[in-house]
Amino acid sequence: MAAQRRASAKKRSTAASPLTPEQTTAWVRTYGRHSRIYAWGFFALVLSMIFGLIWWEMGEVNDDVLYSFSFAAAVTFLLAGWSRKQTTQSWAGVVEELFMKQVRASRDGNQSDDITYSPRARIRTRGGKAMTLRLTESLYGYFAPGDVVFKISGLDWPEKAEPDREERVCLACGNLYAHGAGTCPRCRAPEPDHETLLRLVK
């Protein structure tokens, strides 16, 4: 029993360890490849649903169906390409400003619109490009103006170049978790080696 407990404890300890530099590089490449597969797979699924809906509405496959589907496919392809471009770029920059963007949501009938506020960060990249990023509420409190931040191609969220807190950003889901935890408690993505990430973004 004692041997089994030691083996179980060792297994949990190993599973919770942050990635090595080699593992980090392999994980970033694998994650990026899988995200491309999932994104284009979803694109194909959406196109299939659009085609089926148009066919069901028209009752047959004719020139009108093909023209409508071609237009929908072109628009969907452009939107998918733009979305992928936003996540497949590596960059480094400085947080210039944090602000709350007012978002208005229309309601049915004579009811007044709902107004909510969404956290944003304005970033100035090394190349001089200004961009605005959507943040979670926790990341809104994590970043500060003047922070040097970076994002890795294929991953969705930025991180500080020089972490100044005992927390890390999950680059897959944007959750904050304790440094050294080994995995994100929300999505179970591994904790990568920070120095390796900095080398990958250069």
Q: Describe it for me?
A:
This protein is α+β, with helices and mostly antiparallel strands and 202 residues long. It folds into 2 domains: 21-87, no CATH class; 91-201, no CATH class. 45% of the residues lie in helices and 22% in strands. It contains 5 helices and 7 strands; from the N terminus they run H-H-H-E-E-E-H-E-E-E-E-H. The strands form 2 sheets. Strands 3-2-1-4-5 form a 5-stranded antiparallel sheet, with no helix packed on it. A hairpin with an 8-residue loop joins strand 1 (91-105) and strand 2 (114-125). Helix 2 (21-58) packs antiparallel against helix 3 (63-87). The longest helix is centred in the N-terminal third of the chain and has 38 residues, at 21-58. The radius of gyration is 22 Å and the shape is globular. The N and C termini lie far apart (50 Å). The model is unreliable at 7-14 (pLDDT under 50).
